[in-house]
Each structure stands twice: as C-alpha cells, then as structure tokens.
Amino acid sequence: MRGARVTDELTSAQPLVTAEQAFPAMEELVLEARERLDLALHIFSPRTKTRSSAAHSRHIGDWGALIADALRRGVRTRLLLNDFDPVGAPEMHAAVWERLRLLADAVKPLPHGARTHLTVLVAHPGGQSGMALRTLIWPVARVKQARIVSQFRRKGRNLPPGLAERADRIPRWPPRRNFTATLHQKFLVADKSLAIVGGLDIDERRYDDPDHNRSAPETWHDVSVGVAGGTASDLADHFDRCWNIVRAEGASHAPTFVAMDPDCPLRFAAIEKRSVLRTGEPKPATPEKGMAVAATLPRPGRSPFRFGPVADLCQLERAHLDLIARARRYVYLESQFFRSSTIRDGLIAALGRNRALHAMLLLPGAPDVIAYEGEKSGVQRYGEWLQMRSLNRLTDLFGDRFAAYCITNDRTREEEIERDALYGKSMVYVHSKVAIADDDTAIVSSANLNGRSMRWDTEAGIVARDATFAASLREALWRAHIGGDTPTPDPVDDPAGAFGHWRTIADARRIAGAEANGTGIVPFPLEKTRRFAKRHILIPQEMV
C-alpha cells in the first residue's frame, strides 16, 4: 500500500504450519491485546475450541468466550466478516448469521459497557454484477430464490436475513443485487503491534496437525505467519482501509437481522454509501529487503454488463510475478487452486529463460466442494478446466523441471468412490497460499493462484525478502510433507537434485498405493481433472 513501511524486523516472524500451531498463537494474540483488536475473516465460528494453555488456564473454552474476555478487559474489538450471496450460496449465508447469534449469546452476559467495545461489520464488499446482466439472469434467479425460501420453511428453519427480505412476495422488478466478490482475507491484529496473517480462518473444520491422520473431509493443510512491529502496524492500517471501503461501497443484511431480533446485543457498523479515496498501486510490489504487506483490493465497476468488480490494487499478483521472475534456482508454490493464466504465463516465461530453474507446486487433488460435496456445476468444471490447461502447458513444456503434487495420509480409501481418494489413500486437503523462491523470498497470504484472488476478492498477506525466514518456512513445510528420513538436496545448491528427490518420493508412494505408510506426497492426478473439466466461454476466469 502507498506509504506502507517496509520493515526488517524479521527475527519476530514466525511460520505457523496447520491450525495446530496457528490456533494457539491466535488465541495468545487475543489474550495479549490491551487496547485494540481487529479481526478480518472470511469465516468465523465462535464455537471453535481453544487449544492454548493460556486460554485454558483462564477457563476459556471457545472463541466466543475468548472474544467476550477481550471485551471484559476493555479491548476495543472490530470484526470485519464476509457474508455470502443469499441465493448463490444460501447455506453459507445462513451459517454466517447463525454463528453471529452464537457470538451474541457469548457476549450477552457482559455488562452493557463491555458489549459496546465490540463492533461488527458483516457485509458483501462492493462489486455486484451490472444491471444488464442481473436483468438477464433475474427470471432464473428469482425462481431459485423462491425455491430456496420454500426449502428453508419446509424444514422449519428460520430464514437468514438475506432471504427474509421480501420473502413472501419476491418482486419481478427490480432484479435483486448479487454479490460476486468476497472478503477472503484472514488476519488478526492486536494493538497495531502483533498480527497473524495467512490462509487460515477460525473454524473447527480448519483444525488439523501436520500428520493429518483423520478422514479425508476432516483434513486441512494451511499456513499462517505471525509478525510484529511495523508489519503488524501496516496490517492494522490495511484493516482500517478495508473497513472504510466496505462501509462506503459494500452491502449488509445487518438491519434486517436486527429487525428480526431486536434484543440482539451485537452492535453493527452501518453501511454509509459515499465516495472513498483510493490510491494507486506502488511499484515494486516486492521489497528489496525486509517485509511488506501486500493486498488485493478491487473496486466496483460501472459497466451494466460487468460480471463483478474491477481489478484495482493487485499487489499480491504483482508480488507473485516478481518472485517468479527473480527466481534463479527454484520456485515452490502451495495453493488451493492454480487457475490464473497470468501466474501460469509468468512461470512459463521464467522456466523458458532459465534452464537451471525448477518449480514444484502443491495442490489438493480436487476442490473441496467437488471432492466432499459432489459439486458438478459449470462454474466448478470451468475452474478445473483452467487448472488443467495451466498444468498441461507447464508439464508439456517443462516436464523435466516442473511438477505438481498432492498429499495423502495414512488412511486407506477406495479411489473409485470419490475424488478425495488418490492412489488408494485419503487426500489431505491443501488450503495454504505460499510462494518461496531460492530460500530468499517468501509470500504467505490468503490469496490463491486464481483470477478471483488475484483480481476480484479482498486479500491480504506479507512479502518477505529475507533468507532466514524464507529458508525456515520452506524447511518446515518440506519436513511436514516429505519427512526427514533421507537427506533432501539443498534446492539452492542443487535444484535438480531436490526436484528429483520430490519426484522419487512421490512416485514411490504412488506405486505403493494403499500399502503406503504415513503421510506424504503423490503426483497430482491430472487425468482425473481432465475427465471432469469443461470449458465455459461465458464465465470470466476471475469468477473462479
């Protein structure tokens, strides 16, 4: 961000691999807050259990009680939380407001003065589709909304606020708003001095450890990083900026929620439509040394035919391109998706320029909604087509220096049943967003390697030019994924050797199939993706 400080206080940066490490650190951050606590999350569940000894010593059992404890201590707390489109994702929209009721229950016993320390902004960021496009799809969307409302009522479920609005008589005109962009960032800041940022939301589903010894739908590999000093302060400034932008450009169903529950003790920040000052993206996105905050911040579009927001601040995309372009020995990536043609082309260019460069990519075997929920929509199949195209091109051009991998655990699973099984073992779900090059530069963020995270969604992360931090992060991840039974060639001194070591381990585990032991890497199942993928000429790649 313009004016953001670049810090070199990297001795305080702490890699946090899986929620086993991240959740206790997050809890301790909240407990150490004295005056100000900011939480920017995609998903938040107050029922998430606490894991730290510090929380347990105070008899704090879950995150609802943890937030209540901060309020009781007088900590001014702001929660910036994403909402989901009521028609496009009704179950996730309903879950947001059901969990807010749980948060309300947690803070309700507090004195009124303590409750006023909490302000909640739960909203859709600006960036809905254009009027012409919404008019075109409204007849179908209107029928879908009526069907969803009927299903909720038939099951005796309370309507969430986004569906309760004019539920008894859905108007034919005007078409309802739809929300294609999300607040996808995940970070916490205490007193502008301590922060944790990365890919991990606060939800019980996210809890896992590096062994991943649980059923496939319960696994979750993720990475966050704890930072302090100027970097934490810059994340606090980013929070302020997002808070102001969402209040000025976003939309919230909080007024309807409060009207449905007048006794709700939560105080919601109001949406106040107004112009907001925006600044252009500084160059370069990557610091020459030290650590900097990087973000994706789109802006609302004006075209009546737009699908979503307009790309504006794309620091994380620029930072990934810089990292790849600067790499001389190796690039290591972890992501939930690999769909961005811009990132793909940057990697192709770098590998083409430098025959000494090797690249390794860690992905889930399939997106969670496909593997665990059986989703087969055109949007999901198009997303898989984009990923298949990227992997095909890189494999065809640089098969001796590029490879994609997945993780499986120790549990046997019949792979004919679902796509969460790979080579006779249960897939470990990879949700991390990490990039490392040459043990010199590292990125940890909330942004996937897809057009949505690079251009449309609100994202946050850190970019570090520091050999100690980058190497320690890479070593921690490789130790978790390939173990330490046999020495791994140093990827800076011998990138071909390290690349071959990964390939040998993955091929051996693939051949072992159901007999493989423990948790480890396997080759990405590209043929499965090919069978599922389907091109869609009408959907922009930023949507997936």
From TrEMBL:
Residues 179-206, 426-453 form the PLD phosphodiesterase domain. One of its GO terms (cellular component) is extracellular region. This is Phospholipase D. Its main location: secreted. GO terms for molecular function: phosphatidyltransferase activity. Keywords: Secreted. InterPro entries: PLD-like_dom (IPR025202), PLipase_D/transphosphatidylase (IPR001736). SUPFAM superfamilies: Phospholipase D/nuclease. PROSITE patterns: PLD. Pfam families: PLDc, PLDc_2. It is found in: Secreted. GO terms for biological process: cardiolipin biosynthetic process. Could be a virulence factor. The keyword NADP does not apply.
